[in-house]
Here is the input.
Amino acid sequence: MLTSPKVFNYPIPGNPTGGILHIYGEAAAAQDVILYCGGFPDGLEPISNLAERLATARDGQAGGCYVGVTCFPGFDNKTFNEQKFTGFKKSGFTFDEVTCCVRDAADLLFEEHAKSVSSSTEECKTTFTLMTHDWGVVIGHLFINRAIEERSFTQHKPDRLVMLD
Here is the structure.
């Protein structure tokens, strides 16, 4: 079995370290990158077992997908520190702000992935799947539409979108 996920934080509106990204898997062995965006008000718990399984190869070893799990801003800091989850929230977010949070989580996930992948590879053959759940589906659609319409919004455009409800 894999070890606990690596935990990273990224800026969210109103808090420079309030976004939390849990990363499962070994980047060097992964050809697929998955970013899971949970719905309101879920934290890490509903997806952690699936994320670990996706990051595990069929033989039970590391070598599956490289999986990042993020939640709506401020709704998952339970494994990051002892504060209640409301400690990172401001009084509401706009859809645009939450869409930018997904972009920032994707950027961080790919930044961490790039640290472990050989720089001698001519072309990155990694596929990017955005997996969304509940209210994360709305944000996923906003993210993908904006990524397509505005080339400067993100360099990480999903190859696939998986929506769960």
User: Anything to note?
Assistant: The two ends are 28 Å apart (CA to CA). Residues 9 and 20 are 4 Å apart (CA to CA). Strands lie at 6-12, 15-24, 32-37, 66-70, 127-133, 160-164. The chain has a mean pLDDT of 80.
